[in-house]
Design a protein that fits this description.
The protein is of the alpha/beta class. Helices cover about 45% and strands about 15% of the residues. The strands form three sheets. A seven-stranded parallel sheet has the order 3-2-1-4-5-8-9, sandwiched between helices. A five-stranded parallel sheet has the order 11-10-12-13-14, with helices on both faces. Helix 11 packs across helix 14. The two termini are about 15 Å apart.
Length: about 375
Amino acid sequence: MRILLLGEASFVHSTLRKAFEALGHDVTLVSAGCIWDCPRDIDVGRDMRWGKLSGLKVIWKILTNLPVFIGNDIVQMNDFHTIPLKLGWNKLFFKFIKRFNKKVVRGCWGDDIVVFNAQAQGVLAYSDTHIGTKAINVEENKWRIEEQHLPEFLSCCRYVNKHADAFAACLYEYYMYYNKDKYRPRLHYLPLPIEIPDEKNISVKGMHWPIKVLVGIQKRRDFIKGASIIGELVEKIAAEHPDKVVVNKVYDVPYIEYCKILEEADVLVDQLYSYTPAMNSLAAMARGTVVIGGGEEEYYDFIGEKELRPIINVRPHDDEYNLNVLREALLTPGRISKMSRESAAFVRKHHDYIKVSRQYIEVYDRLLS
């Protein structure tokens, strides 16, 4: 099968590319790399040394690699906005991709008007923009939501959503947001793919006091992630029990350095507003690190998981609940080491990148048949 992967989000496509190639498929990845500078075969990032002409370089890069964008069995896009050009160009680009390839799959992996509308309607009990139907972090989220309401964003998103052959939702949240009559027949839950490390790189964490907790904060995106809020609660517990819990709080650390720091941690503080673990959490869990983040029972029910509960689940605007959950997990002897074992087992069971890639291929085969 000839597969073209367009765009990137936290190594999802680069991880899938490795898996698809391992299964014998012909794969090309075209992206701008996203904020982590993820690997890609063709780089369509804007070179700002070109100034206002940087967009022309993106177009030139596409035109000089035109055969890559034609004749694929499957084109999978990370979003409706796959190339770093204005939305009119993205809409035109999608029309071209749709015309000259067999099937197009759109990833449901991030912000769009469908997501924000569903959050405002209280589809889930909480999100990074709402608690039920009550808006939170209003000023911080204003630009995100207004952007998706711009006419060019609405036009492009609605056009792509109307004409995409399938939707790939990578999280329970996105599946629920897109679980509507006009999308449901084309909607698939396809878990995030994680490379499973060698056994020698997986260690059982939390075997000894004190429990080492890493709070990694991206200042620009903390209002979306909420790591600083969780960090303050963990610091409160650490102040009460300095012999049992220590906190390492870091800000805007480069990815390579962050990975090294993470190796020393027993527990990682990730997201406050999520129902489920995303790529950062899953990559840590695969190596035995316990995550504080999203692990709601609805999610475990959705994926059919009856036994493993590896995530320290926290909820926004409920400090009393969160403190009780955190104290129980961090201060109960043996709890973190048990959750560490379950974390690695959970990722191996549900997110192994070869297993996930086969799920993708099953969807692709059904589309092509």
